[in-house]
Fold:
Amino acid sequence: MSSTKIGFIGLGNMGAPMAHNLAKAGHTVVGFDTAGTIAEGVGVALTAEAACADADFVITMLPNGAILRSVAAQVLPAMKQGATLIDCSTVDVESARDVGAQAAEMALGFVDAPVSGGIGGASAGTLTFMTGGTEAAFAAAKPLFDIMGQKAVHCGEAGAGQAAKICNNMILGATMIATCEAFALADKLGLDRQKMFDVVSTSSGYSWSMNAYCPAPGVGPTSPADNNYKPGFAAELMLKDLGLSQQAAEAVDADTPMGALAQALYAKFVEEEDGRGRDFSAMLPRLAARSRGM
Ligand code: NAD
Structure:
């Protein structure tokens, strides 16, 4: 792809390495962040509008839907004809759809493209993008996804990327808790954790949480459990995503009892206990230290 002009809004833990990878690939990237953060190889703009005025693509990597809405209100009117807004933040489905509709009204492209892969994937350029938007907008954005990531799945219309992301993470939150509570039960039954892994990882209880990201230290492939539960994927980020899935479930009247319970457990862990700043698999020591009815 020939050099493209890209405005990048939100140069935080994820945005900075993503913007850097685009610049490294030869694109002209101009960034803006209210905290004044910068990224290697990326030009600095004094306002969001200035970063976007001349850009073929504007990429946002922001904390939440309310901030996305306010940034979109600023930058959409400043974007040039035919440009595309790619929002890589994890936000609520409704915000993604609304911003997509506003972009369409202004004849601008829009793709919601939340990611999985975390800070390591952002730095290595190996993120997975789950995306929503028109075929044309997805096709236009695809070369940029190929630089920042290793896979981009087009899931449907605007909002479909966010829907896929929160459904995936609702499964992940619930299966991590189920895996941790099974280990905690196995401990109390006198079952060796390695034996538990050997059986479950090759039996019908297997999952990504057990097989690829085992919450028990010293068992299975190396995971944050082996690094004193340093994230990885922090419990508070899991709580954010579980909150978004419950918000979506309420909006469309979907019955999600496991997701609701997972949200409640992570909320307690993060807000009332020592979960903040720990990996989400630290649910295992939490459960292992408890007794029934605590
Ligand atoms: P972060 O807090 O490090 O970065 C967000 C950045 O946005 C900050 O630098 C902040 O100053 C900036 N910002 C806030 N308001 C702004 C505004 N109005 N204009 C310009 N900049 C503004 O967060 P992060 O870890 O980089 O995550 C970004 C998004 O990616 C979130 O939606 C998060 O849920 C999602 N995500 C994060 C991870 C992860 O492992 N960190 C993984 C997958 C998805």
The pocket of nicotinamide-adenine-dinucleotide is lined by residues 9-15, 32-35, 37, 48, 61-63, 67, 71, 89-90, 115, 118-119, 237, 240 (CB under 6 Å).
